[in-house]
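User: Sequence for Carbonic anhydrase/acetyltransferase isoleucine patch superfamily-like protein below. Tokens please.
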Amino acid sequence: MSLPVVILGAGGHARVLLEALRSASRQVAGIVDADPARIGETVMGVLVIGTDEKVFDFRTNEIELVNGIGSVASTAKRVELFAAFKAHGYRFATVVHPSAVIASDAELAEGAQIMAGAVIQAGASIGMNSIVNTRAAVDHDCRIGAGVHIAPGVTLSGDVRVDDDVHIGTGATVIQGVHISGKSVVGAGSVVLRDVPGGVTVYGVPAREARK
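Assistant: Structure tokens for Carbonic anhydrase/acetyltransferase isoleucine patch superfamily-like protein:
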């Protein structure tokens, strides 16, 4: 039997996750948020029960956590929060919206989030704490690292490798066999035709590295 979940964060991504959790019949015990002013609010009928420290009122075997922090360009805050609670022994739920299509041999690591209408094809793997957002497509044999955000409408062709902490913006397309190295950002709507080095931002059609 699945444990109840506590959602970290009360913003837009948290609301999308809440809908996915309800669609999958997961029990939500509450929401926590870093802003103490939000305590006592309700988000889609679920109470904000405290700040992040409220999680420690629950034993590690009583709940699972859901990382409700989204990312726009940088995944750093989301990655930091995940690591902090993992260090205290908490486990993160893997969230899959019922409308997502996932191949029988695809691999989803702890804390992966697969949102409505997403497609994960044969042989693909999604790393810990990564998001495959609304209607994104991850084709065969792609390898997605930890802490990655694949934004809504992204298309990854077959055998793409995405290293840790990468953000791929809304509607971007990555052709087959490309390797995107860690901590890089792919701008929204870009078309990536060649490998992307680590720690850079690329954008455009075709995608090119942004000038510093």
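The chain has a mean pLDDT of 96.
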